[in-house]
């Protein structure tokens, strides 16, 4: 049961980080709306690019990479919840595609076009916020009882391996542990 607890705490921390990033993105969109007359193409392009980067991040989260595949492999009892989550993700992807295709033309339509674009960006944020809430309120509580201990152990091992890999990447940037790589201290 400790592995399940560790996994859920890890998911909770990741969820908190994702919510924080989403909140920052939403604040940026609201800032654009408040300063419509000072907005340029680069500002809109940057906001959309950040949304696209955030979407990539969302698909690499542990819940997407490890937990949902484990649930699908283990049982069909969570299919309705997974379908809801997939539907919200699909809406987000559709909005991002539309934003990517339309942002250049928003300026030709003036303030109305930029407002419409910002409204679609807000809709994207709303759908993601809804997805995060469903993950926390519906998926996580159900998943606790659905996955056997062996799968929780496997998930926790993957989480730890991921942490280990990140640690190795950072360690590779440090000087070698051989004495000649470190500066010699003379007194």
Describe the structure.
By secondary structure, the chain is an all-alpha fold. The chain has one domain (2-60, 77-155): Four Helix Bundle (Hemerythrin (Met), subunit A) (Up-down Bundle). The protein is 82% helix and 0% strand. It has six helices and no strands. The protein has helices spanning 2-34, 41-59, 62-74, 79-106, 111-146, 149-172. α1 packs across α6, α2 packs antiparallel against α4 (79-106) and α4 (79-106) packs antiparallel against α5. The protein is elongated. 22% of the residues are buried.
Q: Which characteristics define this entry?
A:
187 residues, mainly alpha, Four Helix Bundle (Hemerythrin (Met), subunit A), Hemerythrin-like
What is the CATH third-level topology name? Four Helix Bundle (Hemerythrin (Met), subunit A)
Largest sheet: none
Tally the helices: what do you get? 6
Number of domains: 1
Number of beta-strand segments? 0
CATH architect. name? Up-down Bundle
The H-and-E topology, N to C, reads as HHHHHH
Q: What percent of residues adopt helix (DSSP H or I)?
A: over 70%
Terminal CA distance reads 54 Å
Q: Return Rg in Å.
A: 21 Å
CA-based shape: elongated
Mean pLDDT across residues = 85
User: Structural class of the secondary structure composition?
Assistant: mainly alpha
CATH class: Mainly Alpha
Oligomer: single chain
Domain Hemerythrin-like: 22-142
Organism: Paucimonas lemoignei (Pseudomonas lemoignei)
InterPro entries: Hemerythrin-like
Protein name: Hemerythrin-like domain-containing protein
């Amino acid at each position: 049961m400790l592995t399940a607890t560790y996994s859920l705490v890890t998911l909770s921390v990741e969820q908190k980080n994702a919510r924080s990033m989403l909140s920052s993105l939403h604040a940026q969109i609201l800032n654009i709306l408040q300063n419509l007359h000072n907005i340029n193409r680069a500002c809109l392009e940057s906001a959309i690019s950040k949304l696209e980067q955030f979407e990539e991040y969302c698909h690499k989260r542990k819940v997407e990479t490890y937990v949902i595949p484990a649930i699908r492999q283990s049982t069909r009892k969570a299919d309705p919840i997974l379908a809801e989550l997939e539907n919200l993700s699909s809406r987000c992807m559709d909005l991002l595609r539309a934003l990517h295709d339309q942002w250049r033309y928003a300026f030709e339509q003036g303030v109305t076009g930029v407002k419409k674009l910002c409204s679609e960006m807000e809709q994207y944020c709303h759908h993601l916020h809804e997805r995060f809430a469903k993950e926390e309120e519906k998926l996580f509580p159900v998943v606790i009882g659905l996955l056997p201990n062996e799968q929780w152990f496997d998930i926790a091992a993957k989480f730890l391996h991921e942490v280990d890999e990140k640690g190795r990447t950072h360690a590779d940037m440090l000087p070698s542990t051989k004495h000649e790589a470190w500066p010699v201290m003379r007194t």
